[in-house]
Design a protein that fits this description.
single chain; 302 residues; mainly beta; Porin; two-stranded antiparallel sheet; 2 helices
Length: 302
């Protein structure tokens, strides 16, 4: 069980899982649930997980993010834009290691209830999703890919010129018949530096409402470099595009820079800076958006 607690005031830091209809347990504590699952497996069968879990897209692409999915605007926030980070009522199967270094996973999530709200009408949605991922590690080299399909997916209306800009649905809420996502990433540890490269792409398909169709895609390049035994430099840059109804909506770019200082094997200080840019391609209806953030902190792994 993984939960999130805002240590400054103890209130919820994570909304209810993406495909569930309400907070788990209707209490403040359980409304913070990020993951909550049971698993069973062995070397011959593999592993089966049932419950609220990270999506395979988050799990795989996050492994090739040099900042480890830092919760700061920049490269990480762009490739996660429009991505479902976790599913409720999900089943994930990881196959046994038929080939050394190869990890194969399959995931299915099913809500199966009526929820969502378009204008004043409750809208029935299945909100089913399935995905497949494969990752291969061979010495210092690693490569992975993931494919995800979300069916009858409800998306809320976007907000023009906000800190997260707009997705292909623009300012219209509705049911998207399918959202398909593909990711491909690789890394190679050279010792003095570990470069990483990834591609992500989403396609929003809605033949019933062309104004809510579009794509989200881009490339991320990054690295981590141990400068000394206790100091590590980390950086990433991303460039991409968001389209809507057959034409460009935003050209996107973002960067993150981070310094880690190890206090021990399990504790480190860090400082991070991030910047995200949405360059509007429709200046008559949307404006450019620029967001900057920085943070410092202490991380301890128990």
């Amino acid at each position: 069980m993984e939960i999130g607690i805002n240590y400054s005031n103890g209130v919820s830091t994570t909304a209810a899982p993406d495909v569930t209809t309400s907070a788990l347990g209707n209490t403040t504590f359980f409304n913070n649930t990020r993951q909550a699952f049971a698993s069973l497996g062995n070397n011959s069968f593999g592993e089966l997980r049932i419950g609220t879990q990270d999506s395979l897209a988050k799990n795989l692409l996050g492994a090739y993010d040099p900042t480890k999915e830092a919760n700061t605007t920049g490269a990480t926030s762009l490739y996660q834009q429009g991505q479902v980070t976790r599913f409720g009522q999900a089943a994930t199967y990881q196959a046994p290691a038929f080939v050394k270094g190869l990890t194969l996973r399959a995931q299915y999530a099913n809500d199966g209830t009526n929820y969502g709200n378009v204008s004043t009408t409750n809208t029935p949605t299945t909100n089913n999703a399935w995905s497949l991922s494969a990752k291969y590690d061979a010495g210092n080299f690693s490569i992975g890919t993931v494919y995800e399909s979300r069916l009858s997916y409800y998306v809320a209306a976007g907000t023009a010129n906000s800190a997260t800009a707009l997705l292909p649905n623009m300012t219209t809420a509705g049911i998207i018949p399918s959202v398909n996502m593909f990711g491909l990433a690789a890394s190679y540890d050279l010792g003095v530096v570990k470069p990483m490269l990834s591609y992500y792409g989403q396609k929003w398909n809605n033949p019933n409402n062309y104004s809510t169709t579009g794509t989200v895609n881009g490339y991320q390049m990054g690295f981590s470099a141990p400068v000394t035994p206790v100091i590590e430099l980390v950086g990433s840059y991303i460039t991409g595009k968001i389209t809507n109804a057959g034409s460009d909506l935003y050209n996107t770019s973002g960067l993150q820079a981070q310094v880690n200082y190890a206090l021990s094997k399990r504790s480190r200080l860090y400082g991070i800076y991030g910047q995200t840019n949405w360059a509007s391609q429709r200046t008559a209806t949307t404006a450019d958006v620029k967001v900057q953030q920085y943070g410092v902190g202490l991380l301890h792994t128990f």
